[in-house]
Design a protein that fits this description.
Blueprint (H helix, E strand, L loop, with lengths): L5 H4 L4 E4 L8 H11 L6 E4 L5 E2 L2 E2 L13 E4 L6 H11 L3 E4 L9 H17 L2 E3 L5 E4 L6 E3 L11 E5 L2 H13 L6 E4 L8 H10 L5 E5 L6 H12 L4 E4 L14 H6 L3 H9 L2 E3 L2 H11 L10 E5 L3 H12 L9 H10 L10 E2 L6 H13 L5 E7 L6 H14 L4 E6 L6 H9 L4 E2 L2 H19 L13 H13 L7 H10 L7 E4 L2 H11 L3 E6 L12 E5 L2 H15 L4 E6 L5 E10 L3 E8 L2 H4 L4 E5 L4 H10 L3 H5 L9 H17 L5 E9 L4 E3 L2 E4 L1
Parallel strand pairs: 1-2, 1-5, 5-6, 6-7, 10-11, 10-12, 12-13, 13-14, 15-16, 15-17, 17-18, 18-19
Antiparallel strand pairs: 3-4, 8-9, 8-11, 20-23, 21-22, 21-23, 24-25, 24-27, 25-26, 27-28, 27-29
Bound molecules: adenosine-5'-diphosphate and magnesium ion.
């Protein structure tokens, strides 16, 4: 045993506390599963009332079992669990799977039982999976551990699954099974009181036979630790995750733009930060896992297509191109060779149509040429099995060529799998990932390219700005917090931004109409006058914003009108008027346990209506800030589009990074909205800002 989770995933013996002779009970199903899956070690049913279960001798207690036990299941009701954990400790058991539900998910009483069980386990150095979980599976033929009450018996393979929800995990396991794809390990840890998803991911990361990890999580105990661990793993092997909880109605009621837009997307951002491939469809995820667990990683996005049928290539190309992959032409060298080796009717292009009558020799040559062409990073194959062709020999050539090359191959395999079972078996044995539809194969190939992008991405460097004044911000925040205030005044907000060297339009906060006129003269016309009050959230909605004020007479009447309409208590923010060029929005929203979510977008309708914004978790590094700016759909406007001038991207990136640092330095900032910033070719300045604590 060289890892603390070995007792869990590689148990040499298993006890089942609460084993039952009743067929329709978890305590019976787990025994059945262990026997059916041919677990390599002894199984000890524990039940004081019966002598044997499914032909195995039952013991009254784990303490009565002769010999060592590595792992115990507990399936008895919650009130009896802590005491059994204690017995496991006395017996020297190293890991426990508590399948029973009715713990913290049921409230305080359950929480107390969960805590008690965990405390006792800790005392003995026992690791707990669950409670309220399925357990684990390890298909390694030397272990064959089916410590789980599900019903799918996976063949050995290279995909390992970890799921917080057993329901989702079991569906994914069955999907792989139906596709004829083996699996390596499986774990569903339910309440996750002890062994965490992070630990399981790390364990799979170290397992040489695991080539791809599939993850389903709705929440993480320590997201920052998860990101650190997962990043290490994704540098070596892909992690594929389903994004769950993307919609969050509650977020809509938020007081700032960032609040409403960020919702609960933090899982997705955690995955992005860790280099995890995220999927919104379980089907896409499973198909991608098949390709990622069997194929080498391509060196780029250029695809060579081999096909023995027409239409599916058209569909494949549509999908490949819309995923951002490229289909470069064949070289002259390739054409010269292929003209010799292909049938007369073949189409010597990319896609290379070898035509339906092509046999092993044509496929062999097609693969040799395509794989050796340096302008292709991967091969996409459409393979229909014509009844007039020796398909088994073709399949052998495909497998041999793929094995000899270093480029990934994916196959849209069009056949009757029963009638062509020999051909199917050869492709399967040769680990050619086969898919039922052209677009499915194309998307699986895209996931390989996505993973290449993650692996080859430049490390995003987080810049520490040392020209900032932390103390100034600290004192403003402490003062506001000590008075229980949540919304900062304009004066406080702009002082904070200036302390972090975030460029703001020249400003002054004043109280009287005379002071407005003085401030406007000082700043220089034209100016903007805004009402500043904790009660006013959207100033322009209540007539609290007057822009482009040309002179002091107008300033005076505007200020007087605002006082009259909005009350004597308001303050005025007098600001330099910046003629509109391009408006931007940048925001930050605190997200429990992960720091802040930073948002970037173009202002106005782009954010209000199109919700065209990009997000990233703090700390936002240089590459990430660039990616945020270039990933919004309206990015061409930022670059300068049809005569538009574009904006200073370097400055926008710097503001994003400075806001990221402000958030990291001051977790008390719950929401920060810069909306808008006015951006020009050279300068960018904040003209409206809000901070909520
Ligand atoms: P609110 O968002 O509370 O309604 P803003 O301060 O954002 O108030 O003002 C509303 C709009 O007025 C802004 O979105 C922007 O288009 C314009 N605006 C505000 N301040 C300035 C300024 N200093 N220069 C030019 N336009 C401005
Ligand atoms: Mg605004």
């Amino acid at each position: 045993m060289n890892d603390h989770l070995d007792a869990l995933f590689k148990p040499r013996s298993v006890a089942l506390i609460g084993a039952s002779a009743k067929e329709l009970s978890i305590g019976n199903v787990i025994v059945k599963n262990l026997l059916h899956y041919q677990f390599r070690g002894p199984v000890f049913p524990i039940n004081p009332k019966v002598d044997e279960i499914r032909g195995l001798k039952a013991y009254p207690s784990v303490l009565d079992v002769p010999g060592e036990i590595d792992l115990a299941h507990i399936v008895i009701p919650p009130p009896f669990v802590p005491e059994e954990v204690e017995n496991c400790g006395k017996k020297g058991i190293k890991a426990i799977i508590i399948n029973t539900a009715g713990f913290k998910e049921m409230g305080a009483e359950g929480q107390a039982l969960e805590d008690d069980s965990l405390a006792r386990a800790r005392k003995y150095g026992i690791r707990i999976v669950g409670p309220n979980c399925q357990g684990i599976i390890n298909s390694d033929p030397t272990i064959n551990a089916y410590c789980n009450f599900t019903f799918t018996y996976p063949d050995p393979g290279h995909i390992s699954v970890v799921a917080q929800s057993g329901g989702v995990g079991a569906v994914i396991m069955q999907a792989f099974f139906d596709m004829g794809i083996g699996q390596r390990m499986y774990a569903s840890n339910g309440n996750g009181s002890d062994v965490s998803i992070t630990e399981i991911v790390s364990y799979y990361g170290k397992d040489d036979e695991t080539r791809a990890i599939v993850l389903y999580a709705e929440s993480l105990n320590d997201p920052l630790e998860f990101i650190r661990v997962a990043k290490e793993v994704t540098a070596r092997k892909p992690i594929l995750a389903i994004t769950a909880g993307r919609t969050d109605k509650g977020a809509e009621a938020s007081r700032s733009h960032i609040g409403g837009l960020a919702g609960s997307i933090s899982m997705d951002l955690i995955y992005k930060k860790a280099g995890i491939l995220n999927f919104s469809s379980q089907d896409d995820l499973c198909q991608a896992a098949v390709a990622l667990s069997s194929q080498p990683i391509p060196k780029g996005n250029k695809v060579g297509i081999i096909t023995n049928t027409g239409g599916p290539s058209v569909i494949a190309i549509d999908e490949l191109v819309s995923c951002g992959l490229e289909i470069p032409p064949l070289s002259d060298r390739a054409k010269t060779i292929l003209k010799e080796t292909m049938f007369e009717s073949a189409s010597i292009h990319n896609p290379l149509d070898v035509v339906a009558t092509a046999g092993p020799a044509q496929f062999k040559s097609a693969f040799e040429v395509m794989l050796s062409e340096p302008q292709f990073d991967s091969i996409y194959l459409n393979f229909v099995t014509p009844p007039f062709v020796d398909c088994e020999s073709v399949a052998r050539e495909i497998v041999a060529a793929a094995k000899a090359g270093t480029k990934p191959v994916v196959c849209n395999y069009m056949t009757d799998k029963q009638k062509w079972s020999g051909t199917s078996a050869i492709l399967k044995e040769g680990e050619i990932p086969c898919f039922d539809f052209a677009e499915t194969a194309a998307r699986a190939l895209h996931s390989l390219v996505r993973y290449h992008g993650i692996r080859s991405a430049k490390e995003s460097i987080v810049k520490t700005f040392d020209d900032i004044d932390r103390e100034a911000v600290r004192s403003i925040l402490e003062k506001a917090l000590s008075r229980g205030r949540e919304v900062l005044t304009a004066g406080e907000v702009y002082a904070i931004l200036e302390a972090y060297r975030i460029p703001v339009a020249p400003w002054a906060v004043v109280h009287t109409v005379d002071q407005v006129c003085d401030a406007a003269n000082r700043i220089g016309f034209p100016v903007v006058i805004k009402a500043d009050s904790e009660q006013i959230i959207h100033k322009s909605d209540v007539g609290g914003v007057a822009v482009n004020i040309p002179d002091v007479q107008k300033a005076e009447t505007v200020a007087e009108t605002m006082k009259k309409n909005l009350g004597d208590g308001i303050h005025f923010l007098v600001q330099k008027f910046l003629p509109k060029e391009q408006e931007l929005i940048i925001g930050a929203k605190a997200s429990v346990g992960v720091g802040h979510i930073i948002m970037f977008g173009l202002g106005g309708i782009f954010v209000e209506i199109l919700k065209d914004v990009a997000f990233c978790l703090t700390p936002v590094g240089d590459t990430e800030s660039m990616e945020m700016i270039t990933s919004v759909k309206a990015a061409p406007l930022i670059e300068g589009f049809r005569g538009g001038k574009g904006i200073n991207k370097a400055k926008a990136m710097e503001i994003i990074q400075r806001i990221s640092m402000l958030g990291t330095d001051f977790p008390a900032i719950k929401e920060l909205d810069l909306n808008p910033l006015v951006a020009y070719e050279d300068e960018i300045s904040v003209v409206d800002a809000r901070i909520i604590l």
